[in-house]
Amino acid sequence: MNAEIGDASAGATPPPASSWRSWRSWRSWRRFGAVAGPGIVVMLADSDAGSVITAAQSGARFGYRLLLLQFALIPVLYVSQELAMRLGIVGRKGHAEMIRDEFGAGFAWFAVGTLMLTCVGTLLTELSGLAGVGTLIGVPVPLTMAIVIAALLLMAYLGSYLTIERIAAAAGAFEIVFLIAAYKSRPELSAIREGIVDFPFADRDFLYLFAANIGAVIMPWMIFYQQSAVVEKGLTLGDMRAARLDTAFGAFVTQLIMAAIIVATAATLGTAQQGAPLDSVASIAKAITPFFGKEVGVTLFAVGISGAAIVATIVVTLTAARAPSEVLGVKHALEDGPHAAPWFYGIYTVTLLAGAGLILSGVNLVSLSVGIQVMNAMLLPIVLAFLFLLARRLPPPYRLEGGHALLVAILDLSAIGCSLYATVLSLFG
Fold first, then answer.
1. Is residue 4 situated within a structural domain?
2. In this structure, is residue 26 part of a structural domain?
3. DSSP class of residue 312?
4. pLDDT below 70 — which residues of the chain?
5. Which residue range(s) make up the domain with 312?
6. What's the number of domains the chain is made of?
7. Residue 20 lies in a domain
8. Residues 6+ positions from 410 with CB-CB distance below 8 Å
9. How far apart are the first and last CA of the chain?
10. pLDDT at res. 409
């Protein structure tokens, strides 16, 4: 075991074992309310604009055939993010900083390099989604970008970590409208039963979306964000149980949202115009309008994707600014302020402005979104390998070992194998 991680929690006392009965007390739930945030926010960001588009494309193209995959990915998502949370609480370092201290600056910059690729790609999909929503309601793209960028800059420069966490959670809560959309679509249970057990693996388009859905669930920036967030929030070993519940609840909710989007589009587009292409946010909203009504259809989709895009934009830009700052060893907390943390705020600002500039050049949201998720799937081995190795270096009783390590390895290898197999066959098969 490397002493760097162990020393960070030296002398700490493990949280006492407890039963479900202890969680029924009002005091325990108040404590959960104080601890919850990093897990729920990062999971709401997981069902971002790109993931929403990927799920909508999945339902429109292949009906309910990719529905079961959403629930099968919950354990993989949970164990990965639980390890990130555990590393942050026990090691009290961000993910990039911990990789630097454990494996050297070279490996840290390599990990951060792959992270920045996904952050930039994801940011483009979020801003594209917001631009698309603006177009739906008659707001020009340049004005939408100006409003979004100004709001996010003010939020970071003037807000604290807790303020931004609450803003992100509130924005992500709008994704609940996708559950309403699934309910209003009136799906046929018989069609769902038939669809969820039909896997056309010979179809390259199906494999491509299969890989994209895996990439849409586990993204590098999620691991970096949650580990840094629990450190910045000041969570301790005594918060571990509540932090796990925070992560588990978020994992279930985000996949439920993805499933709801597939159900809504499969019950409408997947039956009425099977295989219809979705080229933009406007095309998806227009396509579902006949089934939900013009005002309801556009409102549901616009509100849902706006909430998803905003919370993901907050998470991604903060992650893109934090990770390089951690490797450089400079201040990177929101409480430090621009004068004390110029690198952090500088990278944050440049990332947002560059993303907005690229969006103004025009981009196909659906092609970009699905492509980014496939890229995430291809980078999955790098992300999960670092996470697994770092967790193996934690001190007992938090070290990943024994049966738990075996279970994590099986889940990780399964996700990596499926995503790479599907990606390679869809692109080169």
1. no
2. no
3. H
4. 1-4, 6-27, 270-283, 286-291, 294, 362-370, 373, 422, 425-429
5. 35-428
6. 1
7. no
8. none
9. 43
10. 92
